Protein: Transposase
Amino acid sequence: LNNLRANGHPSGGPWRQFQCTACDGYFPEHHGTIFHGKQAAVELIVHVLACLAEGLGIRATARVFEVDPNTVLHWLVEAAEQLTAFSAYFLCHVHVNQLQLDELYVVLRGVINGEISAENAIKRLERSRPWVWTVSDPESKLLLVADIGPRTLAMAQRVVHQVAQRLAPHCIPLCLSDGFKGYLPAILGHFGGWVHPARRQEKGPWPKPRWRPLPGLLYAQVIKEYRRRRLVGVTHRVVFGTLEAVNTVLAPLGCQINTAFVERLNLDIRQRVAAVGRRVNTLCQGEDGLQHQLALFHTYYNFILPHASLRQPLPQSVPTNGTGSAKTWRPCTPAMAAGLTDHVWTLKEVLLFRVPPWPQPQTV
Structure:
């Protein structure tokens, strides 16, 4: 709006001061961010959050940086709100050819302590809260949705609804999932429409309209059979569309019907989210704490962490400042591969980014 102008650094501080010519008010550069009002150094806050994003627990991070654990938790809660808004702002109008959906559970404390068996824990988890739902694009490795909820039909509807909101209009990707029954009505409800059947007789009432999948909808399932905790068989089931159409979409990746990419992503979540790891003592006490760590991982994985398989060759080698070999590859994040941004973000840039309160086209 051209109503701001810089007014120097008050008292020689690190942050600039701006003046609003419309209201004749003054405010610092970091106003409205998690750094405003903090006595701690900016680099310390960034390094603490980076350690949390790399899978270090809250108490371990507090011991490394000699900070109180409650302070680390407070910074994480404030950062999660900013990171959630940041991801929601950029993850919109996404064009993808296929999606893989999966869910993973969080180990109960009772299983670790030996109070209940793993089989009974899984039965309890079927209707409990700690399930992490993930939806990713296997081509760009973009994580579209990372949510927490019970393994129920209502939660499947919620996850698919978030996917439909972030996809571009008229984008109907190939959906691949496991054999969970809740995905079928959820996908059909969001990627379907009313169809008026043809009249079979000249006389009589018209047939009632029916809800049918859209013509371009493709959905397949990977059904795994287990016996004594061992995988004994895998079957592929095409629910919507034909096998030839599904293989045509999967041909660029040179693979068949599978959920291997989202399962590999689940491994990253277990390694980088301390509350989801196996056989650890960093489990969260409630769903809110797990949601905060998952929001940090969601933004860190999509915008900050380069993916090795997405790197792009440079037109010519770039010499380095040291004695090492020349740089021949350009790092690329899943958000860059999906066309949502043009550079690798730093955690400090993300935390300082001001998310507009109104919808705007992304120009960054």
